[in-house]
Specification:
The structure is a single chain. The chain is globular and about 110 Å long. α4 crosses α5, α4 runs parallel beside α9 and α5 packs parallel to α7. The strands form three sheets. A six-stranded mixed beta sheet has the order 7-8-9-10-11-12. The protein has a four-stranded antiparallel beta sheet with strand order 1-4-3-2. It starts with a helix and ends in an 8-residue tail after the last strand. Helix content is 29%, strand content 16%. It is built from twelve helices and twelve strands. It catalyses: Thiol-dependent hydrolysis of ester, thioester, amide, peptide and isopeptide bonds formed by the C-terminal Gly of ubiquitin (a 76-residue protein attached to proteins as an intracellular targeting signal). Hydrolase that can remove 'Lys-48'-linked conjugated ubiquitin from proteins. Keywords: Hydrolase, Protease, Thiol protease, Ubl conjugation pathway.
């Protein structure tokens, strides 16, 4: 074979090798974007094949400015959160929950203490947080007595004081819900009230697990990082340094707080709190159940508002399933009235809720949540103050631009309906006939037949 024939043969071999390599490339699914995807190794004749891509859990979560590294969420925890809150691991949150974050009114507005609670789904959560915000603004034990707010003036916090009050409110809610850590002694194990297991959740940048099976990703649950804290001071430091994550438009601040409360309380204990009376903390239309309101206000997800646990019916017969209620006096109270209920079968709120430690009540009037508060703490400590006092009402909706101040006079009981009393234009014919706004009827559940003066404002309930 001469030199020319050898060159042609060598060229043919090179072409065949190149064609074989190209065929192998197409056979194995080679990707041109090598920086984004892993190049698969050639298939072997064995049973075990290499995956085309391997999911990697992110090494770092969001920047917390703390030494707590946190832990990435796993798929089982994510499913448990969904199951406990919405009732199904495949059911995501509604759009109003995803949009909600903690946002105050302008400090120069007429309601500088108020959170925006316009979205119907997370409104109850926002107003429960609002109740603790007012508690810390008006009655914080850390403030000197002369700096607390008394009389008829409501608090007017600056932007910095708004953030501080929100931090303290979140710490109050989380600390109430968290379970005490066990303390070992020489004889037996007891609970340590000074240490609890609080878990705060923050949304990271990348998914922490592959969404598959019956879990549908929503863009934030699969990106959660969990931070475990054991002392109240550590919780406050962590929340203070990361409060911006709960107040940014791009973050689901309300869902992160709700996740934190549920994880701190644990799935099993929440189900035990509800006593098999409910399956989830939200209703089918993503509204807050009474169990969720109780969990946020008292740390216990009991589904009823009476005192203690009812084990027998009105005839003394034992119930198949007891009715768990409020077991101790709450820091913040709760009042309820629904005009659709029959007069003889109205929901009765227990004294544990009616007489809280501070004069602040989350209210539910005809299905709508709001807030009543008094700026004088003496209202719940000195019965003489209840003769004549003022209550401020806040519903959290953007349409409320000024304060609603009600003057309550219990010195002269109202025995008959005042025919000249102006009522809400939204009340039905039955309410028109009664000449009594629903908000007043709610106030009567705490102060029966008191005289309520709206200070010239038209009642809107």
């Amino acid at each position: 074979m001469d030199r020319k024939d050898r060159s042609i043969a060598k060229l043919d071999r090179n072409q065949n090798q190149n064609l074989q390599k190209l065929a192998n490339v197409f056979h194995d699914g080679f990707s041109l974007t090598q920086h984004q995807y892993q190049v698969p190794t050639p298939r072997s004749s064995g049973k075990k094949n290499s995956a085309a891509s391997v999911f990697k859990v992110p090494l770092h979560g969001p920047n917390t400015q703390t030494r707590n590294p946190g832990q990435p969420i796993d798929v089982n925890t994510a499913r448990g959160l969904r199951l406990t809150i919405v009732g199904s691991p495949s059911q995501p949150f509604t759009s109003d929950w995803k949009k909600f974050f903690f946002a105050f009114r302008n400090p120069k507005s007429k309601l500088p203490y108020g959170l925006d609670a316009s979205l119907p789904g997370p409104r109850a959560l926002a107003l429960c947080a609002q109740a603790y915000i007012l508690k810390n603004l008006m009655f914080s034990s850390e403030k000197p007595r002369e700096e607390t707010y008394f009389g008829k003036e409501s608090p007017r916090p600056s932007a910095m004081e708004q953030d501080g009050a929100l931090v303290d409110a979140m710490v109050d809610i989380l600390w109430k819900a968290a379970l005490p850590l066990a303390r070992q002694t020489q004889k037996h194990q007891t609970n340590n009230p000074e240490k609890k297991q609080v878990i705060v959740t923050l949304v990271g940048h990348d998914p922490c697990f592959q969404t598959k099976g019956n879990f549908i990703g929503d863009g934030f649950t699969e990106k959660l990082w969990l931070y475990t804290l054991n002392t109240r001071n550590d919780v406050r430091k962590f929340v203070r340094r990361n409060i911006h994550y709960f107040c940014e438009r791009i973050s689901p601040g309300g869902i992160m707080l709700l996740y934190s409360v549920v994880l701190s309380r644990t799935f099993d204990v929440i189900m035990k709190d509800m006593g098999q009376r409910q399956k989830a903390l939200l209703t089918d239309n993503a509204r807050s159940t009474q169990a969720l309101v109780n969990l946020l206000l008292t740390g216990n997800a009991a589904p009823f508002v009476h005192n203690g646990v009812i084990r027998c019916d009105s005839q003394g017969k034992a119930l198949d399933r007891p009715l768990p209620g409020i077991r101790s006096r709450s820091d913040v109270g709760f009042l309820f009235f629904n005009k659709q209920e029959h007069e003889k079968r109205r929901t009765q709120v227990g004294s544990m809720y009616k007489t809280p430690l501070v004069p602040i009540w989350v209210t539910q009037v005809n299905g709508t949540f709001g807030l009543l508060f008094c700026t004088s703490r003496d209202l719940v400590t000195d019965w003489k103050t209840e003769r004549y006092f003022t209550l401020h009402y806040y519903n959290g909706h953007v349409t409320q631009q000024t304060e609603t101040v009600l003057t309550i006079d219990t010195r002269t009981r109202v025995d008959s309906i005042n025919p000249d009393k102006q009522i809400s234009i939204w009340d039905d014919e039955e309410e028109v006939e009664k000449k009594q706004p629903s908000l007043e009827l709610l106030i009567f559940t705490k102060w029966p037949e008191a005289d309520v003066d709206w200070s010239g404002e038209t009642p809107y309930y």
